[in-house]
Amino acid sequence: MYHNRWMRRLGLIGGTSWFSTQEYYRQLNSLVNERLGGLNSCECVIDSLNFALVASNINANRFTENESLVLSAGYRLLGARCEAVMICSNTLHQFAPALIANVKLPVLEIPVAVTQAVVATGLKRVAILGTESTMKGSFLSRPLEEQGIRCMVPNVEDRAFIHNSIFNELTKGVFREETRDAYVTVAQRLIDAGAEGIVLACTEIPMLISSSDLSVPVFDTTAIHVRSAVTFALDS
Asked: Which of 3.40.190.10, 1.10.3720.10, 3.40.50.1860, 3.40.50.1970 would CATH assign to domain 10-109+224-235?
């Protein structure tokens, strides 16, 4: 297993989309440099998937095919002597259990890091914005609810809008003002219904809206994931 005296080598499963993966790369390097100074940057390997394949499998409900893509990437990162794996996508975290079971590397999970962040604030009710499988699935909401935090999601129409905008705009690097305004409107409906915080549970959404757009605490899963990964890399 590779290890140097400065930091652990991180393995990133990216490309879903490459726009958000480059943001992961930027934030990882920025935070490592902030911690260590000088010319230091993050030691990492990116295994970038073809998002067209991933998206096609999602649309056709080909669960097994996407699981295979994630597992193959994990094995390649193991071969690259990485010391932990990050899945740079909320949606693909539904395959984290398979990755943990099959690839003998620690998996730094978004749901774990996000739950810790929400618990630290003392909030008891948050809303989740993401793809349909993230909003309606349990891989993100379950660990939160196990800590006594109620999870809310948008109504059917708003979920469809968010899901479609992610695949038709955000993952293509298209960030329109009209879309931003619509997201804020959806979030405000959830706030009016009792949400005390908003979880931006898609790696592209924080590239569209931020905490300054909303009146309650915002949990940017990308930033939270990066912070936990840098802690692992430098402090473990």
From this structure: 3.40.50.1860
